[in-house]
Design goal:
The complex is a heterodimer. Chain A is mostly helical. Helix content of chain A is 74%, strand content 1%. In chain A, helix 2 packs across helix 11 (242-255) and helix 7 (183-193) crosses helix 9 (205-231). Chain B is an all-alpha fold. Chain B has a single domain, classed as ABC transporter involved in vitamin B12 uptake, BtuC (Orthogonal Bundle). Chain B has a two-stranded antiparallel ribbon with strand order 1-2. In chain B, a hairpin with a 2-residue loop joins strand 1 and strand 2 (137-140). The chains are: A mainly alpha, B mainly alpha. Chains A and B meet through helix 5, helix 11 and helix 13 of A and helix 4, helix 9 and helix 11 of B.
């Protein structure tokens, strides 16, 4: 990292920590959403960006993580800090099962992506039939008074949720930075660039691809727990829907797949864009359902066409901090 | 459970499955040649369905006549989409292609939402209520016609790829990209042509499907997933596989709706998909790559 990059990172961290002192609840909710997508994007990036395994079913881990912690909380009053371990365990189990089956049978690329969609869809419909978790009618967490701070049960003010999410995102960022520079990170990148060559060099590709899936699903499970306690209501139709998976991967793809800042930048750009479009349309008085998504999609198309590697790599080169990989 | 009922449901599922198969055939042909997975496939299907509804409402045009203008329009749309938008992405990574087509899908589905609103639309023709009795089996006329249209279109497409020079040229592109380039085939044009033909499959399937179900904009994503399931089960790039996959999924959906609950029907499709991916990843009729 260059001096400039360090300075920018420090400034960003300072701004994020200081934000609640200046921002109202609306701005905080947008910021929390950005951080949430930065976190999930980072988690997805471990699998696709680092190890080259395309998952289009990450909603599975968000959903299972959310339902696991929420189920324990609603039925037994077990708090999220304990429930998170069940969430992680279940998601790691699921991720390993999918990874094991896919990698054992040599499924990769588009086929692997479709397998991940299939598992997510299968689970979505399955959860519609689990009455213990509310079925299609939804599972609701009791909303405690918003001004009371109860960190043990993750009940509290928007500022608390903001700082929890900021802590998670910062930890994920540091973890991914460490991963990328570790021996494991280099193995992953070798597999991503050319799996056969990596294998020929003696890398146990099966083991390291499994590790990528396990780490990615565990991180996403944590995001799921946060989601459950932040939004307080869970519906299978929404949690496991492919739209959710797409929301997760939009950020890193627009920001820059395989980069560290890409997921963060992408999440910020997309969330602010969606919000900006909403404001713009409201100001213009064009409030037809669907028009917002059309604008959003057109911006996506333009970014994809003119910035094939995402926003971050060319930006980093402009700023002169282009030691980012890829 | 009376055996008559099971047989009736089976036949209905089989006929619907042929229409599914034609829709998936379009996806399979595009993937087999251009190597791009069309994530906007189901959304294109709903556009065809809406086009048929509009033609019926405005001109009283029977869906089986509306299929001609709709198919022609879809050919032009598919050709243009490939030539202008997708072609630069052919050599890009899968994630880029996926996002591109997803953005196209978002434009299509929300465009429909803006124009038609979220309510379900349909067409009503006399033969939707009629059926033939073959012994104890009742065959809906509309369903039989829809399946017939699907089979005829699929047959024409197979004949095109087998017997015409252009069809052979397209197959050459699919078999060996560089070889095709060396002998001087215009790959960009052939890719666009292939996308156009795949879109025609969707157009015909959409015209036929609107006789069987009501259409809403939200149906697009479900059809995209359905088309994926079918081509993976049948074998991506295999034409017969797409039809076989369509029939299998159609029948399994119908029987699952009968024996379990209708809401669980696509669960069986996805379970079938997972099994096929694990034990025969190239699909039932697919070739090993």
């Amino acid at each position: 990292m260059t001096v400039l990059a360090k300075a920018l990172l420090a400034a960003l961290a300072l701004a994020l920590v200081a934000l609640p002192a200046f921002a109202n609840n609306y701005v905080l909710s947008v910021a929390t959403l950005i951080l949430f997508f930065a976190f999930t994007g980072q988690a997805w990036n471990v699998m696709m960006g680092f190890a080259g395994q395309l998952s289009l079913g990450h909603s599975l881990y968000v959903g299972v993580g959310a339902y696991a912690a929420a189920g324990l909380f609603v039925h037994y009053g077990i708090g999220p800090w304990a429930g998170i371990w069940l969430a992680i365990a279940l998601c790691v189990l699921l991720g390993s099962a999918i990874g094991f089956l896919a990698f054992r049978f040599g499924i990769s690329g588009v086929y692997f992506a479709l397998l991940t969609i299939a598992f997510a869809e299968f689970t979505r419909i399955g959860f519609d039939h689990i009455d213990w978790l509310g079925g299609p009618g939804g599972l609701f967490l009791k909303v405690a008074q918003r001004d009371q701070l109860d960190l043990a049960n993750l009940r509290g003010t928007p500022v608390m949720f903001y700082f929890v999410m900021l802590g998670l995102t910062a930890a994920a960022f540091a973890f991914c930075a460490w991963l990328l520079g570790s021996r494991l990170g280099y193995y992953w990148q070798a597999i991503r660039e050319d799996e056969q060559a990596a294998q020929a060099l003696g890398i146990n590709t099966f083991r390291y691809k499994m590790l990528a899936v396990i780490l990615s699903s565990a991180m996403t499970a944590v995001a799921g727990v946060f989601f459950a306690f932040y939004y307080n209501n869970l519906f299978p139709e929404q949690m496991f829907h492919i739209i959710r998976s797409i929301e997760i991967i939009l950020g890193p793809i627009i920001g820059g797949v395989g980069t560290l800042f890409g997921p963060v930048l992408g999440a910020a750009v997309l969330t602010l864009l969606a919000d900006g479009i909403t404001e713009f349309l409201a100001a213009m008085g064009w409030e037809v359902p669907g028009i917002k998504q059309v604008f959003y999609a057109i911006v996506l198309l333009v970014v994809l066409m003119f910035l094939p590697k995402g926003i971050w790599p060319p930006l980093a080169r402009k700023l002169g901090i282009s030691k980012e990989r890829r | 459970m009376p055996i008559d009922l099971v047989v009736n449901v089976f036949v209905a599922g089989l006929l619907t499955g042929l229409v599914y198969g034609l829709m998936a055939l379009g996806l399979s042909v595009i993937f087999g040649v251009v190597r791009v997975v069309n994530f906007a496939h189901g959304e294109m299907m709903t556009i065809a369905m809406y086009a048929t509804v509009v033609l019926f409402a405005a001109l009283k045009l029977d869906p089986f006549l509306a299929v001609l203008p709709v198919a022609a329009g879809f050919f032009a749309f598919g050709y243009g989409l490939q030539a202008a938008v997708i072609n630069p992405f052919v050599t890009r990574p899968e994630t880029s292609q996926f996002m591109l087509l997803l953005a196209v899908a978002m434009v299509l589905v929300n465009g429909l939402l803006i124009i038609f609103g979220p309510d379900a639309r349909n067409v009503q023709v006399a033969y939707q209520l009629e059926s033939w009795a073959i012994g104890p089996i009742l065959v809906d006329k509309a369903r039989a016609f829809a399946a017939g249209a699907a089979v005829v279109t699929a047959g024409l497409l197979v004949a095109f790829f087998r017997y015409t020079l252009v069809g052979k040229a397209i197959r050459a592109c699919a078999d060996n990209y560089h070889g095709a380039k060396v002998v001087g085939l215009n790959i960009k044009r052939l890719y666009a042509l292939t996308f156009g033909l795949g879109s025609v499959c969707v157009a015909v399937a959409g015209c036929a499907m609107v006789l069987l179900v009501d259409v809403t904009p939200a149906l697009g994503m479900a059809y995209t997933l359905l088309a994926f399931v079918i081509v993976i089960v049948g074998g991506l790039g295999s034409m017969a596989g797409a039809l076989l996959g369509g029939v299998l999924i159609g029948v399994s959906e119908a029987l699952a709706g009968l024996f379990f609950t209708p809401s669980a029907k696509s669960m069986f499709s996805f379970a079938l998909l997972i099994l096929v991916l694990l034990f025969r990843p190239q699909g039932l009729l697919g070739r090993k790559t």
